[in-house]
Design a protein that fits this description.
By secondary structure, the chain is mainly α. The chain has one domain. The chain is built from four helices and two strands. The chain has a two-stranded parallel ribbon.
Length: 85
């Protein structure tokens, strides 16, 4: 199961380095990264960076379809489901 883990470099609730090590121990194939200048609210502190990391991760999971084309593919699939109605 593809998993993305993003942890704020300045996390205060738990030790970010230990959390990363533990995640990699239990999920060896996890894609994990520290987010600079962010703590527990990393999605609010670094929204552009978080969005870019998530979009990049998702794009790599969709059989090498470039993310710029992904929305068109999804729309085509949605339309084809309704063509038989």
């Amino acid at each position: 199961m593809p998993t993305l883990l993003l942890i704020g470099e300045q996390e205060k609730i738990y030790n970010p380095k230990k959390a990363m090590q533990r995640a990699k121990q239990f999920m060896p194939s996890v894609t994990a990264d520290f987010i600079p200048h962010a703590s527990h609210l990393l999605t609010m502190e670094q929204p552009d960076l978080i969005n870019a990391r998530i979009l990049d991760f998702l794009a790599r999971q969709v059989d090498d379809i470039p993310f710029s084309e992904l929305s068109g593919v999804v729309q085509e699939r949605d339309r084809s489901q309704f063509s038989t109605l």
